[in-house]
Structures are given as C-alpha cells and as structure tokens.
Specification:
Blueprint: H1 2-31, H2 59-62, H3 79-89, H4 105-117, H5 122-130
Length: about 130
C-alpha cells in the first residue's frame, strides 16, 4: 500500500542518516586524537566496516612504509595497505603502479588521502610532523 511504501522510504532515509552519523562520529573521534593514539574505523557508506586493515595511529601515515616509527617500532603500514583501504571506500580509486615505492611522492599522497578518509585533519598531520 501507499502508506507502507512511504514508511519504507522513511525507514531507508533514517537508516542512511544513522550511517552518516556513525561516519561523522568516527571521523570526529579521529580528528581529535594525538599522533600515537589509536585511530577509529570509519564505516563505509553502506554502514559496514571496511574488510581491510586500517593504520593503527597517525604516526603510521607520516612515516614511509617499512621505516622506523618515532617510538622505535617498525612501521608495518605500507603502500599496498593504503591502496586496499582507499579502494574499500572508493572502488574506482587508482590502480597500483609497481614502479612506485614506499618513499615516493605518490605513496606519501596516498597516505595523506588515507588520513583524510579517516577524518584526520591537515592541522593534526602538520603538528604531528613537527613533533617527529
């Protein structure tokens, strides 16, 4: 019936609003953390969590893959993981370029894009970079 169709339409819209709220909440949580605090998973547009790894901290995005983090640990975040995460949020995201390496400008831009997708701000990145 017409009423059921409209009710279903309202439920769909409410569900989308709820998902957007969860996405915004996760991004706000990430926008308020320090360099070495745990990042929060940001849900995909359909409300599910990406089925790929996310970087543990902002530090992991500032240091090139497989290099040493400020705390002395090995950075296990790398270009392959950045690419997988970006493709989870945007399946049309660029194809991998095998000639690319961990310290290239392209790898750095990809890590910065991961930060943006997760809600990390430029100011946070700049501040964390200054304190490396």
């Amino acid at each position: 019936s017409n009423v059921e169709d409209r009710l279903s339409n309202v439920e769909d819209r409410l569900s989308k609003v709820e998902v957007q709220g969860r996405i915004t909440t996760a991004k706000m949580a990430n926008a308020g953390i320090g360099r070495d605090q745990a990042l929060t998973v940001v849900p995909l547009d359909d409300g599910t969590n990406p089925q790929v790894e996310i970087p543990a901290t902002i530090s992991h995005l500032l240091v090139a893959g497989n290099e040493i983090l400020p705390n002395g640990q090995h950075n296990n975040w790398n270009k392959r993981k950045s690419l997988a995460l970006l493709r989870a949020y945007d399946p049309q995201y660029e194809t991998d370029d095998e000639s690319d390496n961990e310290v290239s400008q392209r790898s750095r831009n990809r890590r910065l894009r991961v930060a943006k997708v997760l809600g990390v701000t430029k100011q946070q990145l700049n501040f964390a970079q200054m304190n490396l």
